[in-house]
Amino acid sequence: MGWRWKLPPYPSIFKVVRESMPDAKLAAFSSWNPINSGIIESDIDMHKETANMPETASDGADQEDLHGDGREPYARG
User: What range defines the domain where residue 41 resides?
Assistant: First the structure.
């Protein structure tokens, strides 16, 4: 059974732009597929690209100590 995205109650920015500027050239580039395959409405005429990215630390991959203080690479504070 695949992952399914429930449409949000508000339109995406692409839907708002398409409605106000029907001839605008729109494109979305993402490394997380649910953005292009679910969050952005499928009925919008636009270009969508999803990159194939390597797995993150959640799969046990080593990540560099970017802060030099032992914190998680994307930790805040």
Answer: 13-52
Q: What is the pTM of this model?
A: 0.56
Give a yes or no: residue 60 inside a domain. Answer: no
Bin 60: left if φ > 0, else alpha if -120 < ψ < 50, else beta: left
In tens digits, the chain (77 residues) has pLDDT values of 555 656 567 899 999 999 999 999 999 999 988 899 888 999 999 999 999 876 654 444 445 555 556 655 554 55
Report whether 19 contacts 44 (CB < 8 A): no
CA distance 66 to 34: 28
What domain count does the chain have?
A: 1
Q: Is the dihedral of CA 40, 43, 44, 50 positive or negative?
A: positive
Using CA atoms, how far apart are residues 23 and 18, in angstroms rounded to an integer? 7
